UniProtKB/TrEMBL annotation:
Pfam families listed in its UniProt record: HIT
InterPro entries named among the record's database cross-references: AP-4-A_phosphorylase, FHIT, HIT-like, HIT-like_sf
Binding site for substrate: 59, 130
Record carries keyword Nucleotide-binding: yes
Protein name (Swiss-Prot/TrEMBL): HIT domain-containing protein
Keyword set includes Translocase: no
């Protein structure tokens, strides 16, 4: 790849840090996840798929490329409020998301879980499960996905790919 091509390729990518909402400029809404659910125009919408009970979305505040969140449509703030129906729905969506990431981006490791309540590191009260792909050198995803080792990616491109894959998977 010539330096010109490399340069123009990289111009088409943008870094997570350059996204306004990733720097703390969060949309002025009571709850950003309810805003995603209600498709409010001022909330960036990275929804991959939804069911009657839950939504799967590329994380609005990613800390790794491929970072996905799954959350109940109901605004609840504690795990104890999650019903069995919601929990199984989220479970099914989690497995499907993992299968897609494993098969399409060859993800081999994950961190999976919730940050709940004060002191947990969570920043959005509406409960949401994180699916964070992990790599041997934390650059493997980018080698496959963005053909670059620079830690930048284009979330909306990834969103389009994931939406297509979602419909192909059972
Ligand atoms: Zn909410």
């Amino acid at each position: 790849m010539s330096s010109y091509e490399e340069h123009s390729h990289r111009k088409n990518l943008f870094s997570v840090g350059k996204l306004g909402y990733a720097k703390g400029d969060r949309p002025a809404v009571d709850c950003i996840l309810c805003g995603v659910r209600d498709k409010l125009e001022i909330v960036p919408n990275l929804t991959i798929a939804s069911t009657d009970l839950s939504i799967v979305s590329v994380n609005l505040f990613p800390y790794n490329p491929g970072h996905i969140i799954i959350f109940p449509k109901r605004h609840i703030t504690t795990y104890l409020e999650l019903t069995e129906e919601e929990a199984s729905d989220i479970h099914r969506l989690t497995q499907k998301t993992m299968r897609i990431l494993e098969s399409h981006w060859r993800v081999q490791g994950f961190n999976l879980g919730y940050n709940l309540g004060k002191n947990s590191g969570g920043s959005i009260p509406h409960i949401h499960e994180h699916i964070v792909p992990r790599f041997p050198n934390e650059a493997g995803f980018l080698d496959v996905f963005a053909n670059t080792r620079v830690v930048i990616y284009e979330p909306y491109k990834m969103l389009e790919d994931l939406k297509k894959l979602w419909n192909e998977f059972e």
